[in-house]
Amino acid sequence: MLKRMTTWWVFFRVSLEERMVYRGDFMIGVMMRFLPFATQVFMFWAIYDTLQNSAGTESRLTGEIGGYDFYNLIAYLLLVTVTRAFSSMPGLTGGIARSVREGEIKKYLIQPVDMIGLLLVQRIAHKLVYYVIAFLPFAFWFFLFRDCFTNGFPQLHVFGLYILSLVLSFLMGYFLEACMGLIAFWYLEVGSLTFIYMLFSFFLSGHMFPLDWLPSEPFNFQILVDILPFKFLAYFPAAVFLGKVSGAELYQGVAIELAWVLFFFALSRILWNRGVRRYSGFGG
Amino acid sequence: MSIIEITGLCKNYRVYQKKEGLWQSVRGLFRREYREVQAVRDVNLSVDAGEFVAFLGPNGAGKTTTLKLLSGVINPSSGSATVMGHVPWLRDNEYRRRFALVMGQKNQLWWDLPAQESFRLHQHIYGIDRVQFQRTQDELTELLDVKRLLNQPVRELSLGERMKMELTAALLHSPSVLFLDEPTIGLDVIAQHNIQQFLKFYQQERQITILLTSHYMKDILALCQRVVIIADGTIQYDGSLSGILDQFSTHKLVTLQLAEGESFAGLEQIAPVEKLQPPKVIFRVPRLDVPHVLSRTLNERQVVDVVVEDPPIEEIIAEVFSIASAKSADQAREAKTAGVGG
What is the nearest CA distance from A47 to chain B, expressed in angstroms? Predict the structure, then answer.
């Protein structure tokens, strides 16, 4: 056990070093993450503005859509950007699929290591470097929009659960995307699967707009959102921070998120074990 | 005592038969035809500890598939194998700590980092004691003359240097069994030679068991006492390199240097002429006819020099390959006609 921990520690350090090799590319990647956020701010600004004008009230931008006024919405979108920084796993699915297709995966089969564990350690290292670099731009946006958080800072225990839900959303994102990558053992190309996943997560994770906005007629989307895991990838932690979920519902939500993490963790082990048995060692 | 034991090992692949053209591709979406490819067919082999065995065979003969089976990367369709008492495809860690696989066309090192970092990682993955690790690393990098490159990112190394680093990485944990899949592919003559020398020295020093596949006869001539020829997934020959000549070489090459002024006309009546480059003539003679051809030429012409030799080993092996593939084509045809008849 101790041995495995030190191996992971060394792997963690090596991953950190590796991440810092291509500085320029990395910095641009960090900055680009805020581009969708900025776009959304301008778009919703225009929408709320129109809403205001047609209502004919004097003070600007106080109209509500589905329980969010403009300021609530900005706070929501900013928090969703934070969740996405935890739950999104750029290149994970494709990377695993490529290493299956091109045979890089062999080294994990030959060496006494566990690929899913090592890739998790690597991902943690990459994320940490990312947070360090992204801290300043995030601080800037939060400072700029500080007035949008009209409910103030959450209570300490809520904040604790918020952090927990973020960590769980990281783990869920990791194991979910790892599972998709492992499907490459059966279907070598998983590009379209990734695309479908992205499409679903766009609408059902709350990444583009608050999930409270989804209609209940003619079909109750709320049911769909609740039975699927996607909301934990963006909406849920933000909702916790904003106090949209509270009481028993809050604890229940975190418990369900944990259950999803365990589900995808178990699924990834099963896919791995079945997959390598099926694997035919492509690429020389 | 045998360290590798293979009995009746088979590996079939199911490959999708894609037909040419767009329409066929569309059809392929709904109905796929698969073909069974028998990459390895009933391979039986036993290797003793400390042997250096070469796998020879044309591309797609099943050499690499056999190595993949032995290193546990893939599971067999049937048959069994043990290496040091372990079944490779169970991939238990105890086994994985005791062997290594080096593939000439794949790298295990971190591309963007110095090899030193990858080595350090290997130290922990394989649980190598620190002092031992330092000593082994020094020894290997000195032998391979890459010590000065340890701190350079791997992507900046030449192919030969990278291969040396790959070898070092694979040997850090002092494996008892080493599988080498075309370790010298794409390397220049000097780098090839260096790696051969290294492997030879290391194997003799440590008495480890090595299975090597290579297309370069020079690798095999320099290194291996035992050669296994695989073609069409089955073993065609297993024995010493010189044994191949005895078993498969039906001809000898007889080179005669004729005295000045001797006529070259009519030589082809003595024996088939392989090559004529005055003042030399090279006959290709069935082995049993060599004395007869020699005495006849010596009688009829004035000869300055005589050399009798085996044809180049590559040529003989190529012959073995083509015999094997012709045989399997025959078998396939027979099976087909039998199928039609039945």
Answer: 45
